[in-house]
Amino acid sequence: MSETDEVPLAESALEARLADVSTDAAALRVLLPAELQPLISDAVVRSHKLYEEFVDRLVLRVARETGLEAATREPASPAEVVARLGLEARRALAPVDWILRRLAARRTVEESGTARRFRSCGAWPAPDPAPVREEQRRHDPSWLPSYTLAETVAQDYPAFLRGEIAGEEVLFAPRRWRLWVDYFSNANGQYAVSNHVGAVGVGRWLPRAGGVILEIGGGLGSGALAVLERLEAAGRIGDVRAYRFTELVPAFLRRGQQALEGRSRRPGWLRCDPLDMNRPFGDQGVRPGDVSVVYAVNALHVAHDLAFTLGEIRRALVPGGQLIVSECVRPHSGQTIYAEFIFNLMETFRAPRLHPAYRPAGGFLTAGEWRAAIEAAGFADVRFVPDIVRVQERVPDYFAAAIGATRPG
Ligand SMILES: C[S@@+](CC[C@H](N)C(=O)[O-])C[C@H]1O[C@@H](n2cnc3c(N)ncnc32)[C@H](O)[C@@H]1O
Buried (b) or exposed (e) across 217-252, using 16+ Cβ within 10 A? Predict the structure, then answer.
C-alpha cells in the first residue's frame, strides 16, 4: 500500500469537500448584501460543507442497508430499484429517487442513458459519519442538533422505505419531541440562518405604515423571535400593530406561544391560533384584507396545493400588503438539498399537488418556480434577497433566501 493509499478514504473525502470553503466564502462576501454578511460567515460556509458531507455519509449507509448497491449493479430507474427491492412504492419512490440523485452527484452511481437509469460505479465506499460530527463539534457545536436529527432519522430510514414504519412516526413520535425543540431554534446555527434571512426580508419589506403580521407554520416560534428581534433593533417594532402567530400542530403552537409571550408588547398584541394553510383562511378567523404582511419560514413549500394557499394569502392581505417567506431555494431542478433527506419522510413534503410550470415535483422549489407560482397567484414585484439566481450561478450549493411579493392595489 502506498502512502497515499494509507490516507483513510473518509478523511480525504472530507478534505475534498472542504476545499471550496474559502473560495465560496470569498464569492459570498461579494455577492451577499451587507445585512446577510454576518449571517453567512466563512464559519457558516464551513459548517454547511461539513453537514453536506455528514448527510452524504448517512445516505450511503442507508442506501447500502436498504440494498441499493446490489439493486444498481445493472442500470435501473428509481421505480425499478423500488420494485427490485420490494419497497413500498407509494412512499419509497420519491426518497429513493432523491438518494440515487444524491449518490450520482457523488459519483457513487452514474446516470446512464436518457431514461434516468442509475448504475453503481464499482464497489461503494463506507465512510464513517462520526469524524465529520466530531469536526463539527470542534468547529461550531451549535450545528449539532441538525446532526442528531439526521442521524436519528437515518436509523429508521430502511424500515421506513420497506413500509414498516410511517415517516411521520419516525419524525414526530413523542420520544422525538426534544429533537425538534433543539432543531427549530435560533441556538441551532443551521436553522438560525433561515430565520435570520427571513427576518432580513421582513426588515426590508415591512410596509412603511406597518400593520398586522400574520405568520403561517410558525412552529416553535424561532422564526417569529428572529423577526421581532430584528424589528426591535431597527426601531420598527412599534410599526407592528399586532403579531398573529399561527401553526397547524397543537404541541408546536403551544410551545411557540410560550416562547413569544414574553415578547408581547401589550394585551392583544400577540395572538396565537391554529391555522391550516390547506383550508380556507376565512373559515379560520382570517378575514379578507386583514393583514399587511403574511410571513412564513420554510413552511410554504409544504402547502398541499400551492396555488390555493397563495390565493388565500393574497386575499388575507390589504392592497399593497407583502408576502414574505424564507425558503430553501433549489438551485436547479433535480438538484438535491440536504434537508430533504429528513423531510422526504413526510408525505406532505414529498407529495404535494403538482403543476407543470411551478410544482413539477415535491420538496423545495427553484427560484423560477417560486416566481411563476407567486405571479400566477396574482402577486406583483416578486423579489429575492439575496439575488439568488446570481448567487447560485457562482456558489451552486447556496440556497437560503427571503422571497417578497406585493398584493397589487
Ligand atoms: C419548517 S417548520 C417552521 C419552523 C418555525 N420557523 C420555527 O421556528 O419553529 C414548518 C412548519 O409548518 C407547519 N405546517 C405543516 N403543515 C402545515 C399546514 N398545513 N398549515 C400550517 N402549518 C403547517 C409545521 O407544523 C411546521 O411547524
Answer: bbbbbbbbbbbbbbbeeeeebebbebbbbbbbeeeb
Q: With respect to residue 166, please indicate whether it lies within any of the assigned structural domains.
A: no
Residues 335 and 246 placed together within one structural domain of the fold: yes
Residue 327 Cα to ligand 1 midpoint, Å, equals 12
Q: Which of 186, 225, 248, 298 to mutate to test the pocket of ligand 1 (most atoms within 8 A of CB)?
A: 248
How far apart are the CA of 17 and the centre of ligand 1, in A? 31
Q: How many domains, in total, are found in the chain?
A: 2
Residue 240 and residue 373 share a domain: yes
Any domain includes 175: no
What is the reported pTM?
0.95
User: Which residue segment(s) compose the domain that 132 sits in?
Assistant: 3-143
The answer to the question of residue 162 being in a domain is: no
**What's the angle, vertex CA 180, arms to CA 175 and CA 181, rounded to 5?**
100
Distance between Cα 279 and ligand 1 center (Å): 14
| Tens-place pLDDT, residues 52-91 | 999 999 999 999 999 999 999 999 999 999 999 999 999 9
Which ligand 1 atom is nearest residue 219's CA? 27
